[in-house]
Structure formats: C-alpha cells, structure tokens
Amino acid sequence: MKTVNQRIALITGANKGIGKEIARQLAQRGFAVFICARDVAKGRETSEELCQAGYESTFIQIDVTDPVSIRTACGTFSQKADHLDVLVNNAGILEDHGENILNMNTEMLDRTLKSNVIGPILVIQDFLEHLRKSKTGGRIINVSSGVSSLANMHTYAPAYSISKTALNAVTKQFAGALKEHNIAVNSVDPGWVRTDMGGDDASRSVEKGAETIVWLAADAPQSETGKFWHDKQETEW
Question: Is 55 part of the annotated catalytic residue set?
Fold first, then answer.
C-alpha cells in the first residue's frame, strides 16, 4: 500500500546519531519517514522502534557509495510512496581526524568524496522525480559541517573538511538548477554533536543537532534556498 496523503521524508544514514534523531522528530511532526542506511539490522531496528511508538516508518537499504544500491533503493521507494517532500542527505564518513593535508592519504580522500559528495549528488538525481511530485514543494537538506566554512577553515581533518566544502557547492548548484521547480536546497552545520562521529566530548545533544534540519524540513519558508544554516540562522560559506 502506497503512502499518498501524508508528508514524506527520506533520510540517509538514519540508523543512528543525527539521522536517527531527524527521523524521530519528523515522525513526531506527522511525517511518514523512510529510514535509509547500509546496515540492515540497525536500520530495521530503528524503523521498528518508530513503528512501535505509533509512527509510520519504513526501512530501505542504501549504500550511497554504490550507484546500483541507490537506484535499487529508489525503485523500492517508488513501490511504497507516490511522492517525496523532504530528502535529507545525512550519510557521511570522517576517517582523518587528527591528520594533516601534508601527508594525507589520497585513497582515503577518494573514499570520503565518494561518500560525502558524489553519494548525495546521485541520491538527489535519482529521487528527483519523486521530489517533483510534492504538492507543497520539495526540500533537500544536505548535512554539512562547520569545518566546511572557507571563512573559518584551518587544518582539521582535511579530507572531511574538503568534502563538506564540496557538498556546500553541490547545494548551491542544485539550488540554482531546481529553483524554478519549487524545490528548496540548503546545507546545515548541525554543530559538534555527541554521536559516534562527534564523540562523547562534543558540546551538543543529537536533539540540538537535528533541530535546524527539522526546521528546514517542516517549518522554514519554501523560498529559503541555496543557503548555509546554523541554529536556524544563515551562516558564512
């Protein structure tokens, strides 16, 4: 049975951390949420948790580094829903914490770009047909990072930082290309969040990390597009 009248959101990397919290908050707001992740067991577990809490949730396996996996996920989605209102590109990797660009491993850089930049491009391209069917206007949110900001960039995690700067450029490109189609595209810096990636010492809860992303998904004016956000305020690229 297809989800038809409900607002629908699809979140990549939604089996844990910020992605899981985004899904939870959007489900609370009445969205039917699609939990997308590589890890089948954890993805299903997250989706079942939401269903047991009384929300509508569906798991779809996706590996954003694999074009075939993305196309397959899109085909599965089309069997379960007739449109998509919100796409959150949250899946990403950080492998070079503490490394320096002077001795950066370029194979690791290649993996990082494949996951954090090329993956979101392919996901947007494949799911675009469903976003165009949104009755309220589609919304794409790319989860970036404060370390992507060229205005403030130093030497931290060069591959990760470069990939998130590139993701911001992807946001600008899609925002320009999709403006006439009433699809808003934005990047978000969620801050330093206590997740597997952020670590236990991070200053923010997952609830706070998800807040601006959920706002852009559910409440922000549709006219807000092509911007970089932090705590619901536009910030420097």
Answer: no
CA 20 – CA 149 distance, rounded (Å): 25
Tell me whether residue 30 is in a domain: yes
Predicted pLDDT at 3 = 66
Residue 224 within a domain:
yes
Dihedral (C-alpha) 165, 169, 171, 174: value to the nearest 10 degrees? -160
Distance CA 116, CA 96 (A): 13
113 part of a folded domain: no
State the Cα–Cα distance between residues 124 and 146, nearest whole angstrom.
22
**How crowded is residue 2: how many other Cβ atoms within 10 Å of its Cβ?**
9
* Percentage of the chain exceeding pLDDT 90: 89
Q: Which of 160, 174, 228, 229 is catalytic?
A: 160
Q: Which domain holds residue 133?
A: 8-94+120-147+165-234
Is there a contact between 11 and 34 (Cβ–Cβ < 8 Å)?
yes
Beta bridge partner(s), residue 234: 229
Number of separate domains in the chain = 1
